[in-house]
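ingest -> validate -> predict -> emit
validate: passed (alphabet ok, no gaps, 326 aa)
predict: started
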Amino acid sequence: MLDTVKYLIGVAGPSGFGSKSTADQVTSHCPKLHSITAIITGATSGIGAETARVLAKRGARLVLPARSMKAADDTKARILSESPGSEIIVMFLDLSSFHSVRKFAAQFQSLNLPLNLLINNAGKFSHRHAISEDGVEMTFATNYLGHFLLTKLLLKNMIETAEKSGVQGRIVNVSSSIHSWFSGDPISYLSLINKNKSDYYDGTRAYALSKLANVLHTKELAQRLEEMKANVTVNCVHPGIVRTRLTRDREGLITDVVFFLASKLLKTIPQAAATTCYIAIHPRLANISGKYFSDCNEVSTSKLGFNSTEAARLWSISEVMVAQKI
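emit:
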């Protein structure tokens, strides 16, 4: 009850920020980012677009991958109207397709740019069962596995950039507190929903699984980066409850009523982007890795999300999945 009251009134935590803090506020005293290159997935709307706007305002060079080039161009135009002179590169990427992820990574590498920040923000929710071209349930493919492969392909770039520049690289995985809604065996449930039938499919459970996978990915990657002695960190965030295009497959009366009733708990988009921006660029996060944040403060994951064995198991399965079509 006390935590709910603190959330509603925006009481600041140890970081000095809370649920009412905005992305502009949490970055207002951060160093300029003129030497920083950031890739932000899902930046054409909602939290991703606000994250891109704020980082451009601070001087970062942005690479915006998107399925809709028009939406990406529109986002670029909006950012340039506020921050003229910003360097923004728009590129095609469909995270549900391994081929598209590999093509994007190769095209980015051909630009010979540094890579300091990778913000894995894109996400989707769908109550309809669908399978990707690679044989993976679509929500899992888009929210987690595409980002797993993207991170894997770009990690060498990030490590080399950190070595050459002396500036620590940061990876931010955007998850959700809904990851705690998943119980049971993640791999067993994934194998069921990867089949070309929807008998076992539940949209909410599939979404929770994908967000749990983001948490477990963060945990295992942080350990591997530490073992490699790489000057790159990875952390995971819960942005908060906000109505974005994430719910585009569930628009309707029921969704409208639920969001109306929960309106007091909803964040604005600038508030929802605050934790991502804080983790991405605030100096206080130097050398902090493998953690989970909400309202710009470290919090605990679910018991399953804290399980190192499950994190290693998911990593191994993911390596196999991205290496071959299922």
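The mean pLDDT is 92.
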